[in-house]
Amino acid sequence: MERAAPQPPSRVDLLAYGRAVLRAALIPAAAIVVALSIGAVIIAISGANPLVAYGALFEGGLGSGRALSRTLEKATPLIFGGLAVALAFKCGLFNIGAQGQLLLGAIFAGYIGFAIQGLPAVVHISLALLIGALMGALWAAIAGALKAFTGAHEVITTIMLNFVAFNLTDWLADGPWKDRSPGNIVARTPTIAPEARLPDIAGVPLGIILAVLAALAVWWLIWRTTIGFELRTVGQNASAARYAGISVRRMTLLALILSGFLAGIGGAVETLGVVGRFQPGFNAGLGFNAITIALLARTNPIAVIPASLLIGVMQAGASRMQFNSGAASEIIDVIQALILFFVAADSMIRWVLRVRAEEGERVTLSSGWGS
Amino acid sequence: MKKPLYATILLIVAALIAACGQAGQGGGAAAPTTAPVAAPTTAPQATEADCARPEVLCVGLVTDVGEIDDKSFNQSAWEGVKRAERELGAIVNYVETKDAKDYAANIGLFTEKGYDVIVTVGFALTEATTAAAGENPNVKFIGVDQFQAEAVPNVAGLIFAEDKAGFLAGVLAAEMSKSNKIAAVLGTNLVPPVVAFKEGYENGARYAKPDIQIISTYHPGGLDTAFTDPKWGGDQAKLAIDQGADVIFGAGGKTGNGALIETAANQGVFCIGVDTDQWETVPEAHPCLISSAMKLITPGVFDLIQKAKDGAFPSGNYVGEVGLAPFHDFDSQVPQEVKARLAEVDKGLRDGSIPTGYNPGG
Question: Do B20 and A323 touch (CB under 8 A)?
């Protein structure tokens, strides 16, 4: 089914490649336009001016250097989370647990960040990122093992593990790892050491650079390695994969571990690059937005980047939109949900655009129950 | 076939946006833009664009993660700001925070426009407020629920003795209970004011009736769900009522409201609200709501804005008033001696002769 997915230009005619990319982008782009139009109607009904609102939204997301850096800041964890969810989809797994894996990554990176002092920045940052990523991987591995060895559906187990992660991190932040400095009364860890803070490389935050590299790495893994081939084969037809001698168990476990690893780095980057400590509530919703991203990108790792930037712009600009126009900032959630809806229910958009689905353009997401 | 279709869609979208643009004119929070013929220097005709002028008082408010019309905290603070709009002729606007990482950016929306007073709502904004105060020494910041460990010259932390409000609610609950069993449905213990309400409530109840039984439950979720889970709140209220409790104290945003609304469906059970007079904010609870343990945020915010305007802005902690809301329809059902008792306890709490027993540090 994935045959017709865009191949790199070295392999095929550039023009055809461009056309394939455009075709692939058509449905998400149309979904965005339709969602923004419906959003405009809702803004108007709520008594605000949609033009003013959208103007402010994009000004707040793109209008200045500061706005741009906030957009990048918002997009970074979404890229990692989106890659995590997309990678699991490639293996036919729906990882709803990115949020929990991300939280584990965020708090453990924070712990390494504040508990160790005096390391050189390179070592400290690498260690904190690695531990965060491994904790995310470990958290996802629980769901992976349950799926591989008992058949427990990952949708259920990852959702349940989210709740465990919420409470575990809340407890750590309010208990053993709580910031005990005088005056602090809330649940949060101490701030990380200055050496553990992610620096800017030539004015660009290291986090977004890592995120883009991660997207390239995931693309390479999925399309250029044996493991990637096996993952995709399991995702498309587990029975056929088993018949071909691929260990479905191993791939299921591996896919979730890699997925959790990515989500874990996302959380770690958030702690080390943006928040500067772990505090409950500061990472709310990231792992769930990641599902939107993965679907908007139609599980294509490279497309995760523009999808995250788009949602990042909207999130960075939401406050200014409400400030300038009076339109409730929840409108952004509505638009995001509509985009997701139209991407997921793409036959509706296809009908509107009179575009038929070609065999190769279908995206296989999660496999069914009991598979 | 395709191209005309795209064009059609584009046209429809453009037409929609244009139509909406006209329909939406003058809506929302935008200030009137029509300038008077001879612009006087007085505030009434001024707009947000004039905020940089010293004689124009501009007051902005940044909410904690949550909505401006949360019928609680953010809304009470916003009403204080609205009062400043009416009585002091201030230009006002607000920003709703959607993501806790945006506190600083949201405060920045006001400072860049030259606002004079910025109200930030909730303890979580303490650091962002202190930082912004350092960068903008001429702007006065009012931090609702922000305890000031060290005084910053242009920041006033508006704090409340929640334990005292809870204590009064506890006395009322114990006095009104016939089953000698009362309950509290609470937001998370991750938030100290919620703990203060609970401890005050329990100690107040025991102060009134030493042998009273109290069922208190904290929401088990994290900060992102603890105050927005009315279903859970309702379930806990139901459980407590099934166990014989006949007064329910709901303290925790929408979670607590869920408990109030659930209680309202039960005959002969009373409920007590929190933070604001919830008679006004949760009409569904009228069948049971005898009172609310109030933090008088609205007058506190207004007083501080007034002081900022008069050049008498205090720094450090500014303790606002707490108290019980009116009994409303239940006024006749609350016996005179209970009212007298409450007045006496209120006096004792104020002069310190009755300790609430809540002692966070110790």
Answer: no
